Amino acid sequence: LGRDDGRVVLYRPGREILRPATEDAGPSPDGPLHTLIRETLRTRGASFYRAIAATVAGAAGAASDRVILDALWDLVWAGEITNDTFAPLRALRWKRPSRPGGRAARAGRLTALGPPEASGRWSLVEPAPTAGATERLHALALGLLDRHGVLVREAVMGEGHEGGYAAVYPVLRALEEAGRIRRGYFVEGLGAAQFALPGAIDRLRAARDRASETGEPRAVYVLAATDPANAYGAALPWPRYGGDDRRPLARAAGASVVLVDGVAALYVDRGGRSLQTLPAFGQPGIAELAIAALAARLAEGRERELLVTRVDGLPVGESPHRERLIEAGFRPGYRGLALRREPTRAMIA
Fold first, then answer.
1. Which value, to the nearest 10 degrees, does the dihedral of the CA atoms of residues 295, 311, 155, 197 take?
2. What is the pLDDT of residues 130-186, one digit of tens each?
3. What percentage of the chain reaches a pLDDT higher than 90?
4. In whole angstroms, what separates CA 327 from the centre of its chain?
5. Are strands 150-151 and 81-83 parallel, antiparallel or unpaired?
6. Rounded Cα gap, residues 144 and 57, in angstroms
């Protein structure tokens, strides 16, 4: 992980038991600024950044915004401080000033509120509720079953939980013996130790019946490669062509995968400059659906352009899929094939 990167976990109300206890959360930042920020929030309660900075800078000898922000985010990534909005997380994507001192901001409302990555109100995270190891593993097992539907060893290992599959397996077995979940061979090729809630099995059967009746693609999704909803690279191996010598695919940050009826058809590298087609891409109608999904996502997102320079390791101009991309709206250019978002009426105004 980079300087401004971190892992974010969302806990539903009533699932706070899944949060790691303080003694299990790893080393805590212990610099002078970290201590001052903790004490400020403990005394004042939830506070905006400017109130925190005024107190901390005075006690620390007029520390700069950048130094205070770095200390603040150290505590965020340590799980000690939270915010009431996602705006600061989104602002971490923005490029920092290139000069050490940064560029002086013009006076105005944003200056008064503080830097974008400091917006919202900051507060201390309440201690995790006390729970025994068995109770915590029970809650974890139910959460995994809810998230994955059919739970297998690879899915648990892919999430990186402490103790791995061996820690949660006894709880899954006890739930199966109590009749609360089912164990069986539901998905071919994933081993015999598969656990699922009864409703998940019914949904699998319904999806299989619909596929046998229509035989046509129904659902197309563009997901982050690291999304838990993408089973490839975790519970399932990435589909590859026979004798494929291209570099292996990975659940890399910034990469995307296009799923058609749950089957991976197209892999998009970080930045969107390189595409890798998968075996499903060659089936009738799948390529058009996958490429159209990329165009639809561009129209909904913040990026204004998707520039493709290589497909399956070849320059896009030499790819057999070049014409398909052009038919989907890509335009040839000196850098490659570009798909640009059409300006809306509001953008023109």
1. 40
2. 777 888 889 889 989 988 888 988 888 877 788 888 999 999 999 999 999 999 888
3. 20
4. 31
5. unpaired
6. 44
pLDDT computed for residue 171 by the predictor: 94
Cα–Cα separations (whole angstroms), residue 240 to 12, 153, 225, 308? 37, 22, 16, 21
Long-range Cβ contact pairs of 232-235 (< 8 A, separation 24 or more): 232/257, 232/264, 233/158, 234/154, 234/155, 234/157, 234/158, 234/159, 235/148, 235/152, 235/154, 235/155, 235/158, 235/190
Nearest C-alpha neighbor of 196 from the set 188, 186, 209: 186
The answer to whether the beta carbons of residues 122 and 83 sit under 8 Å apart is yes
Largest CA distance in the chain: 72
- As to burial, measured by CB atoms within 10 angstroms (0-12 exposed, 13-18 middle, 19+ buried), residue 114 is buried
Instruction: Read off the pTM.
Output: 0.67
